[in-house]
C-alpha cells in the first residue's frame, strides 16, 4: 500500500540501497502464483522465445517427415491425408507459431531495454498475449495429435476449406488458431508502439533510436494494419462454415477470389512482419561487430518505412495465375519489383558499414554474413517471380518453395540465430560456445543451401508444391533424394544450436555487462538485467550511447522506488513528461486468457459459445481493470 | 544462334548433369510451345543478370570483410570525407538496382504481351477441373461436332488452341510447362489459356493448385500432332463407341451397363450416360487412365477397377465388387474402346 509508505525517490538512496529497494518493488513472486501472474517483460519474452523455438523444433520434425516421404517416388511413408495435414501444419506452425511470435518476443525482451525503460507498456496485456499464443499453439498441435489437424494448406483457399469440401472441424481449427495468433500479435504490436513512442529514455529523440527498435516499431504498425484483413477473412470463413453465410460461395453470390485478396492483403505484409525485425537484428549485429555505427542511418530508417508501405501494395503477385486483368498484373509486377529498392538500400548500407568497419568474426557476424549471401539469392528470385510471365511457370512449384525458404530462413532465421548468439549473454548472463556456434553456423549454412537450392531446379523441371508423391517416370527422383539427405545436414546444424543453447544456460562462461563492446542501452545494465532493468534511467545524447559516453552514462533521477514507476517522454524529442505507474503482477490476464480460449474453442462447435463465452471474459476483464485507487501518473 | 548462346549460358550456370535430369516431358527447361519458349528466354535473361548481381554483391562483401580484418581498434568516429565517398557509391548502387528492376519490368511487360492470344475462329476446348481429373469438351461450330473426352488433350501443331477453364468443385490449375505457363480453374469464373505447340510430341501437365487429397495424381497429357493426324483423331473421337467384336467384350459391356459403372460414366452409343466420372467412349485409345496414374492396358484397367482406393486413395471412384469373370470381361470391353 503506497499510501502508508513514505514517497521515496531514487535520488535519495545510495546505490546498494537503491538496488535493494527497486528489487523489492519490481520483483516477481516465486512459486506458481508468480508464474501465472508475472508481468515482467523479460520473463514473458523468455517464455515466448522458448515456446517459439519449441514450435520451430516441432515444425522441423514435420519437414523431415515430408522429406522422408518425398525422397522416393510413390513412397508410402505417409498417407496422402497425413501428408496434407503435415505440410499444412508445417506452414501454419512456422509462420504463426514460430516466426511472427519469436520476432515479436525478441522485441518484447529488447525494446524496453534498448529504449531505457523499466517495463513494456501495458505489461498485463503482454502476459495475456503469451497465454493466448500458447493456447493457440496447443489447440493446433492437440488437433494434430488427434489426427484432425487442418489439411488445406497454410493459406486455406476456399472452396477447399469451405463448408462443402472441408469436412470435419479441421478448417475451423485452422481459422480459430489464426484468431488466437492475431490477438497475441496485435497485443504485442500495440505494446511495442507505445513503448517506443512514449517510454524512451530522456534524450533519445527519433533520430537516436537504435535501428532494431525502429524495425520493431515499423513491424508493429504493419501488424496493426495487416491483421484486420485476416481477422475478417478467418471470421467470414468460420461464418460460412458454422452459420451458413455465403461470403465465398459463388452459387449464392459469394466470390472465391475474395478470400485470396483478403488473405494475401494480410499474407504478404506477414512476410515483412517476419523480415523487418530480422533486418533490425542484422543492423544491431553489424554495428557491434564492424565496430562502427551503421552507415546511412536515415536511409536505413526510410528503407524500413518504405518497405512497410510497399508491403501493402503487392499482394496480388500471389494471384498472378488467377486470371486478373492485364493492367492490374503490370501494376503489381512494378510494385513487387520496387520493393527490391529499399531492400537494396539496406544491403548496400550494410556492405558499406562492413567496408569501412573493422569486423570481428564472432558467431553472430557469421550468421549475418550467411544472411547476406542467402537473402540476396532469395531477393533476386523474388524479383524473378514478380514478373508475371515468369511466375506463370513457377507459381505453386518447388521454385517458389525454394524462394520463400531463402527469404524466410536466409532472410529471417539466420539473423535470428545470430541475434540469439548475440543477446544470449544479456538474456541468460552466460555466453554461448563460440566453437559450437561456428560449427552450427557452417552446418546450417551448408545444409540449408544444399537442401533448398536444388528446389529451384525441381520447380522449373515441373514439380508442383504440395504433392504427397510423384510417379517414378518423373525425372525428379535424384534431386529429391539429394534434398532429403541434405536436410539431415541442416537438422544437424540446428541440433548443435539447440544443444549449445541449452548447455550454455548452465555451463556457459559468465557474461559481463557488455561482453561484445556494443553501443546500445541494453548493454548498460547487468547480464541478465535486474527486474527493474536500470537502477537509474540513462540519459541519451547520441546514436551510440555506450560508445559516445564510455563508462559514464548520464542518468535521470526522481522516480519513486516504493512503487513501480517509469518515465513517459514526448514522441519526437523524448523529453520527460510524467512519471507513470507501471502495473503490478496480476492473475487476471491469465484468467482472461483462459476465458477467451474457452470461448474461441467453443465457437468452433457452436456459435452460441460466443454469446455465453463472453460472460466469463467480461468477468475476467472487470477483475483485470478493477480500480485500485492509486494515482496513475504524475507530471 | 540466339538459342545456342542462351543454352550455353544456362549450362554454364547449372551443372549439366543436373540439367540433363531435368529436361523431360513436364519441364519449363524443355520449352516447345510458343509461350513457354518466350518465357524461357525471359528466364535466361533474368537468371544471367541476377547471377551477375549476386556475384557482385558477394565480391564486395568478401572485399569488405577482408580489408577491415587487420584493424584492431574500433574506429573512433566515421571520417566525413570517406562517408561522402561511400554515400556516392551506395547511391550509384541503388541507381543501378532501379535500372535493372525497370528493365525487368519492361521486358516482362512485353513478354506478357507477346504471349499468344487465340482468335475466335481457333479450336476451342472447354477444360473442367474436378477432384481429381480433367473433363474435356471439344467445341465445334455445330453441336454434333462437339464431343467429350478426359485427361488427354490433342492439339494440332502450330495452331493456337484456346482452352476455356472452369473449376467444378475447388480451385485447380492447368500447367503444361513444356507449352505454356499455368492458369487457375476457379469455381464461378471462366479463365482462358492459349496453347500453341511448335513441335509434335506428348507434353505432360499436372494440377498445380492444391486441390485436396489426390492433388498429386491429377495429371494430363497434351498430344501435339500434325494437322492431318489431328483431324483423323478428331473424327474418330466424334464417333460413338465401337460395338463389341467378340463374346467376352459383349459380356463386358453387359457388366458395365448392369453394374453401377454407368451411373457415373458415359459411353456414347450405349445407355451409359453418367457425368460424375470421365467419359469412357474412347478410353482404350487414351494413353493413361485415372488422370495420368497408370498406362492404359487391359491389366491396369482391371487393377484400377478392382481396387481404386488403394491405387489413388480418397478418389471418388468406389470399389465395385465384381467377380473374376466380370472383371476380366469389363476390362476387355474398356480396353477395346479405341
Give structural attributes.
heterodimer, A: 635 residues, mainly alpha, Cytochrome C Oxidase, Chain A, 19 helices, globular, disordered N terminus, B: 338 residues, alpha+beta, Immunoglobulin-like, 3 domains, 3-stranded mixed β-sheet, 42% helix, elongated, oxidoreductase activity (chain A), cell membrane (chain A), iron (chain A)
- 3D shape of chain B: elongated
Strand content of chain A: under 5%
How many domains, in number, for the residues of chain A?
1
Alpha-carbon distance between the two ends of chain B: 43 Å
EC number (chain A): 7.1.1.9
GO biological process, one term (chain A): electron transport coupled proton transport
Transmembrane segments (chain A): 48-70, 94-115, 127-146, 173-197, 209-233, 271-290, 297-318, 330-353, 365-386, 398-424, 436-457, 477-499, 611-627
InterPro entries (chain A): Cyt_c_oxase-like_su1_dom (IPR023616), Cyt_c_oxase-like_su1_sf (IPR036927), Cyt_C_Oxase_1 (IPR000883), Cyt_c_Oxase_su1_BS (IPR023615), Cyt_c_oxidase_su1_bac (IPR014241)
Task: Describe the overall structure.
- Chain A is built from 19 helices and five strands.
- Chain A has 635 residues and is mainly alpha-helical.
- Chain A has one domain (20-360, 512-625): Cytochrome C Oxidase, Chain A, CATH 1.20.210.
- Chain A has a three-stranded antiparallel sheet, with no helix packed on it.
- In chain A, strand 3 and strand 4 (576-581) form a beta hairpin.
- Chain A is globular, with a radius of gyration of 25 Å.
- Chain A starts with 14 loop residues before the first helix and ends with a strand.
- The model of chain A is unreliable at 1-5 (pLDDT under 50).
- By secondary structure, chain B is an alpha+beta fold.
- Chain B folds into three domains: 27-115; 123-238, Sandwich (Immunoglobulin-like); 247-336, Immunoglobulin-like (Sandwich).
- Chain B contains ten helices and twelve strands.
- A five-stranded mixed sheet of chain B has the order 3-2-1-5-8, with no helix packed on it. In chain B, strands 4-10-9 form a three-stranded mixed sheet, covered by helices on one side.
- In chain B, a hairpin with a 4-residue loop joins strand 11 and strand 12 (294-295).
- Chain B starts with a helix and ends with a helix.
- Chains A and B meet through helix 4, helix 8, helix 10, helix 11 and helix 12 of A and helix 3 and helix 4 of B.
Amino acid at each position: 500500500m503506497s499510501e502508508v509508505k513514505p514517497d521515496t525517490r531514487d535520488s535519495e538512496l545510495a546505490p546498494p540501497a537503491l538496488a535493494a529497494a527497486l528489487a523489492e518493488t519490481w520483483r516477481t513472486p516465486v512459486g506458481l502464483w508468480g508464474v501465472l501472474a508475472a508481468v515482467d517483460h523479460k520473463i514473458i519474452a523468455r517464455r515466448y522465445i522458448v515456446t517459439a523455438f519449441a514450435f520451430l523444433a516441432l515444425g522441423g520434425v514435420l519437414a523431415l517427415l515430408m522429406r522422408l516421404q518425398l525422397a522416393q517416388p510413390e513412397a508410402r511413408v505417409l498417407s496422402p491425408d497425413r501428408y496434407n495435414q503435415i505440410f499444412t501444419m508445417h506452414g501454419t506452425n512456422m509462420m504463426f507459431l514460430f516466426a511472427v511470435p519469436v520476432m515479436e518476443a525478441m522485441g518484447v525482451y529488447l525494446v524496453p531495454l534498448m529504449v531505457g525503460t523499466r517495463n513494456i507498456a501495458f505489461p498485463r496485456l503482454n502476459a495475456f498475449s503469451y497465454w493466448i499464443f500458447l493456447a493457440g499453439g496447443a489447440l493446433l498441435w492437440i488437433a494434430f495429435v488427434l489426427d484432425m489437424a487442418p489439411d488445406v494448406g497454410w493459406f486455406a483457399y476456399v472452396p477447399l476449406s469451405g463448408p462443402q469440401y472441408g469436412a470435419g472441424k479441421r478448417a475451423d481449427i485452422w481459422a480459430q488458431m489464426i484468431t488466437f495468433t492475431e490477438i497475441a500479435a496485435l497485443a504485442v504490436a500495440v505494446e511495442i508502439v507505445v513503448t517506443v513512442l512514449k517510454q524512451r529514455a530522456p534524450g533519445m529523440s527519433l533520430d537516436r533510436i537504435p535501428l532494431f527498435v525502429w524495425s520493431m516499431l515499423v513491424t508493429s504498425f504493419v501488424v496493426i494494419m495487416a491483421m484486420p484483413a485476416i481477422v475478417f477473412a478467418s471470421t467470414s470463413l468460420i461464418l460460412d462454415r458454422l452459420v451458413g453465410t455465403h461470403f465465398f460461395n459463388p452459387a449464392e453470390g459469394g466470390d472465391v477470389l475474395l478470400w485470396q485478396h483478403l488473405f494475401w492483403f494480410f499474407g504478404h505484409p506477414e512476410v515483412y512482419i517476419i523480415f523487418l525485425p530480422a533486418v533490425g537484428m542484422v543492423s544491431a549485429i553489424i554495428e557491434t561487430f564492424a565496430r562502427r555505427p551503421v552507415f546511412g542511418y536515415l536511409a536505413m530508417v526510410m528503407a524500413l518505412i518504405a518497405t512497410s508501405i510497399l508491403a501493402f501494395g503487392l499482394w496480388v503477385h500471389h494471384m498472378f495465375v488467377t486470371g486478373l486483368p492485364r493492367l492490374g498484373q503490370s501494376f503489381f509486377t512494378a510494385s513487387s519489383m520496387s520493393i527490391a529498392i529499399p531492400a537494396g538500400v539496406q544491403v548496400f548500407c550494410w556492405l558499406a558499414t562492413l567496408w569501412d568497419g573493422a569486423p570481428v568474426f564472432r558467431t553472430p557476424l557469421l550468421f549475418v554474413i550467411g544472411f547476406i549471401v542467402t537473402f540476396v539469392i532469395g531477393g533476386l528470385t523474388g524479383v524473378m517471380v514478380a514478373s508475371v510471365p515468369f511466375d506463370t511457370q513457377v507459381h505453386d512449384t518447388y521454385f517458389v518453395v525454394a524462394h520463400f525458404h531463402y527469404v524466410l530462413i536466409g532472410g529471417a532465421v539466420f539473423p535470428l540465430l545470430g541475434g540469439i548468439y548475440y543477446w544470449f549473454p544479456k538474456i541468460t548472463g552466460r555466453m554461448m560456445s563460440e566453437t559450437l556456434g561456428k560449427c552450427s553456423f557452417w552446418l546450417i549454412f551448408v545444409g540449408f543451401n544444399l537442401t533448398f537450392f536444388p528446389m529451384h531446379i525441381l520447380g522449373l523441371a515441373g514439380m508442383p508444391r504440395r504433392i504427397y508423391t510423384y510417379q517414378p517416370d518423373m525425372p525428379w527422383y535424384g534431386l529429391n533424394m539429394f534434398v532429403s539427405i541434405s536436410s539431415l545436414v541442416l537438422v544437424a546444424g540446428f541440433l548443435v544450436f539447440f544443444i549449445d543453447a541449452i548447455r550454455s544456460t548452465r555451463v556457459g562462461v559468465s557474461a559481463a555487462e557488455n561482453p561484445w563492446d556494443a553501443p546500445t542501452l541494453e548493454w548498460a545494465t547487468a547480464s541478465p538485467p535486474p527486474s527493474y532493468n536500470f537502477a537509474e534511467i540513462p540519459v541519451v545524447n547520441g546514436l551510440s550511447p555506450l560508445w559516445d559516453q564510455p563508462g559514464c552514462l548520464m542518468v535521470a533521477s526522481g522516480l519513486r522506488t516504493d512503487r513501480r514507476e517509469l518515465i513517459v517522454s514526448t514522441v519526437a524529442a523524448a523529453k520527460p513528461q510524467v512519471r507513470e505507474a507501471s502495473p503490478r503482477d496480476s492473475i487476471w490476464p491469465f484468467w482472461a486468457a483462459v476465458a477467451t480460449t474457452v470461448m474461441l474453442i467453443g465457437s468452433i462447435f457452436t456459435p452460441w459459445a460466443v454469446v455465453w463465452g463472453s460472460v466469463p471474459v467480461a468477468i475476467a476483464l472487470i477483475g483485470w481493470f478493477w480500480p485500485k485507487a492509486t494515482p496513475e501518473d504524475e507530471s | 544462334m540466339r538459342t545456342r548462346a542462351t543454352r550455353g549460358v544456362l549450362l554454364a550456370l547449372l551443372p549439366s548433369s543436373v540439367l540433363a535430369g531435368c529436361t523431360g516431358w513436364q519441364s519449363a527447361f524443355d520449352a516447345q510451345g510458343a509461350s513457354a519458349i518466350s518465357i524461357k528466354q525471359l528466364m535466361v535473361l533474368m537468371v544471367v543478370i541476377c547471377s551477375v548481381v549476386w556475384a557482385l554483391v558477394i565480391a564486395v562483401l568478401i572485399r569488405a570483410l577482408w580489408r577491415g580484418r587487420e584493424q584492431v581498434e574500433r574506429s573512433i568516429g566515421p571520417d566525413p570525407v570517406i562517408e561522402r565517398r561511400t554515400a556516392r557509391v551506395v547511391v550509384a548502387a541503388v541507381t543501378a538496382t532501379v535500372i535493372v528492376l525497370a528493365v525487368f519490368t519492361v521486358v516482362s511487360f512485353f513478354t506478357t504481351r507477346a504471349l499468344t492470344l487465340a482468335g475466335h475462329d481457333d479450336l476451342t476446348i472447354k477444360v473442367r477441373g474436378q477432384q481429381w481429373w480433367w473433363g474435356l469438351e471439344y467445341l465445334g461450330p455445330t453441336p454434333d461436332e462437339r464431343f467429350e473426352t478426359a485427361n488427354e488433350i490433342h492439339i494440332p501443331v502450330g495452331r493456337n488452341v484456346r482452352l476455356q477453364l472452369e473449376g467444378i468443385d475447388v480451385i485447380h490449375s492447368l500447367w503444361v510447362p513444356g507449352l505454356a505457363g499455368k492458369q487457375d480453374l476457379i469455381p464461378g469464373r471462366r479463365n482462358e489459356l492459349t496453347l500453341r505447340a511448335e513441335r509434335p510430341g506428348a507434353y505432360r501437365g499436372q494440377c498445380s493448385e492444391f486441390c485436396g487429397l489426390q492433388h498429386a495424381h491429377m495429371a494430363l497429357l497434351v498430344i501435339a500432332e500434325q494437322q492431318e493426324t489431328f483431324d483423323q483423331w478428331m473424327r474418330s473421337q466424334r464417333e460413338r463407341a465401337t460395338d463389341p467384336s467378340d463374346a467376352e467384350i459383349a459380356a463386358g459391356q453387359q457388366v458395365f451397363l448392369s453394374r453401377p459403372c454407368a451411373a457415373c460414366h458415359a459411353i456414347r452409343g450405349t445407355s451409359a450416360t453418367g457425368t460424375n466420372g470421365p467419359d469412357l467412349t474412347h478410353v482404350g485409345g487414351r494413353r493413361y487412365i485415372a488422370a495420368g496414374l497408370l498406362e492404359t492396358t487391359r491389366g491396369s484397367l482391371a487393377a484400377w477397377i478392382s481396387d481404386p482406393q488403394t491405387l489413388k486413395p480418397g478418389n471418388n471412384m468406389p470399389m465395385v465388387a465384381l467377380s473374376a469373370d466380370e472383371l476380366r470381361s469389363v476390362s476387355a470391353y474398356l480396353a477395346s474402346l479405341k
